[in-house]
């Protein structure tokens, strides 16, 4: 080989190594020993506002062995609204060392190619929608968030909620979850239903991380209750109307309003009354005569009705009355909102509380506390430290919500 060819070959080899190194740095291809800039804190914040400082908010190695390939740092810079929701959620606000970051839950995180596509090749209408959503929360809640939620849920369903199971059912993590609401309990009715119907975690735990104020509706594979017949349910609801009202808004505080509750939640409650898991002399008798089809039809019908506030708040309130509402809201946010949503609209298996009769709520809290209702429920731990006066303030606040 001539000297000239050696120089050309060496230069080409060096250039090739530089190209491979740069490709590894931008995450275009995996290169051993080279860390992508999209997995390095500070890359995105050089242009975008910094929304966090803690790398584990993007990925927590305690939860999963290896981070997925792609963008695992900087999620919040491009997704500030979702990150804000996550911080306030049950998992984002958790002190548990298993607390997940964005990439612990989302399997399909962005690659370099996705980033380039979104930044430079995305249609203008898509970019415009995202920009609008950052400034218009109503547009985000009602238009963009459900679309994003459906995409994320489809990915979870496809892998049978693998990322949920890695932490909540893996034996090596049970010691860290023991005594917390995150401990998986296979013997509770919803988890037994999961096995029976072949459904997956995300179908019941739908909005625990995002869409906390305005739950995005489930549009994927329905549970047995979701397959109920709406028209048949309306006809069959005549047997329920005397106590729960024609449209599920109870005329008496002795009986709960059941309008707009999640269909699967209603179905499970009827099933629990039928098999004796939940006690009520009246409801056990009624449920005994209901078939699975009847319960599904009733659940579907009432889930589609609109809940009305049990309390009408006057325009002019005394200082004490206003203070009580504000204290009730604060207590609710601290104790209940992580599961039931920031404004009580419920999410998945966790029922709607907004608009419920204030007198009904304390009776159920007592039932959970004593174990008379659902001995295995996480509610027992949640309500353990609440005093009667606090519960009354929370119930009064919830009764005023739409």
Give an overview of the whole structure.
The protein is elongated, with a radius of gyration of 25 Å. The longest helix has 23 residues. It has 4 domains: 31 residues; 161 residues, no CATH class; 79 residues, Cytochrome Bc1 Complex, Chain D, domain 2; 81 residues, Cytochrome c-like domain (Cytochrome Bc1 Complex, Chain D, domain 2). The protein is mainly alpha-helical and 402 residues long. It starts with a helix and ends with a helix.
Oligomer: single chain
* Shape label: elongated
Could you tell me how far the N terminus lies from the C terminus, measured between alpha carbons in angstroms?
83 Å
Q: Could you tell me the mean pLDDT?
A: 87
| Count of separate structural domains | 4
- The structural class is mainly alpha
Low-pLDDT residue intervals, each spanning 5 or more residues: none
Provide the gyration radius in Å.
25 Å
Order of helices and strands: HHHHHHHHHHHHHHHHHHHHH
What proportion of the residues is helical, as a percent range? 40-55%
Number of helices: 21
The largest β sheet comes out as: none
**Strand count:** 0
How large a portion of the residues is in β-strands, by DSSP E? Answer: under 5%
